[in-house]
Amino acid sequence: MRKSTSYVRWLHEFLFSTYFALLVVTEEETCKAGSIFLKRLGYPLNEYVYPALMRYHIHLPGSHSIALWWLLAVTFFVALRLLGRFAFTTVLLRNVAGFVSVAGFPILVLPPCNITGLHLSYRICILLYLEIIISIIYIFLYRFRGWAAKVALSVLLLAVHFGIWGWLTWQRIGISFWTIYLLLGFCSALLWAEYFRRSGENEKASSLTTA
Question: Are the C-beta atoms of residues 116 and 169 closer than 8 Å to each other?
Fold first, then answer.
């Protein structure tokens, strides 16, 4: 693997781990009361980190969710690094990551999870789910059929996709915190596309060398 592709993979793994961890923690906190997963995840924080901070009179109010997010993100990232030599990790990064990056946050916004508490009509929900399906189809064609429009158009379509969900959350809630989901999702999707392109070129080059 070329060094440039390796760097892109590192960055892709880190950004995807950060974004996916944020989605998981948000879903567990919002959709599952008393999440067992989060209790187990937060065990080292509650048993070791927080008591140590209390000894030095360090208080971090409202930061537990953020601590869980980054703890899970680091766990995902380290796991991807350790398992990077196995084929299934590459399959994960080249397949699942693209779909999660594009559809992860929108799916959490709509029922049944509805993390933002939006009150949307049935018809609007159907239209928004249809938009998600179209986006997933585009990712599918990009990944499995080797089909994609020009880079500029692809980036534009991606920006429009996240722009729709940005407008939806901003207009309905007015909380700028939701932009972090959109920025991480957008950047993660871009890096996924770049990593997929570079890894595909490397495979072609290696196949021509061995032929």
Answer: yes
Give the Cα separation of 163 and 192 in Å (integer).
19
| Total number of domains in the chain | 1
Give, in degrees to the nearest 5, the angle at Cα 99 between 93 and 103: 140
What is the domain extent for residue 138?
Answer: 3-210
For residue 60, CA distances in Å to 11, 22, 120 come to 29, 19, 35
**Residue 208 pLDDT:** 44
Q: Is 87 exposed, middle or buried (0-12, 13-18, 19+ CB in 10 A)?
A: exposed
Per-residue pLDDT tens for 159-181? 999 999 988 887 665 566 778 99
Measured CA angle at 191 (ends 6, 13), to 5 deg: 55
Read off the pLDDT of residues 34-93 as tens digits, 9 standing for 90 and up.
788 998 998 888 888 878 877 876 666 567 888 999 999 999 999 999 987 787 777 778
* Other beta carbons within 10 Å of 194: 16
> How large is the greatest C-alpha to C-alpha distance in the chain, in angstroms?
65
Under 8 Å CB-to-CB from 77, ≥6 apart: which residues?
13, 14, 17, 18
Cα–Cα distance measured from residue 193 to residue 198, given in angstroms and rounded to the nearest whole number: 9
Residue 98, token pair as written in the block: 């693209």
pLDDT of residue 154: 82
User: What's the mean per-residue pLDDT of the chain?
Assistant: 83
Query: 195, 12 in Cβ contact below 8 A?
Result: yes
The alpha carbon of residue 11 and the mean position of all alpha carbons in its chain are separated, in whole angstroms, by 13
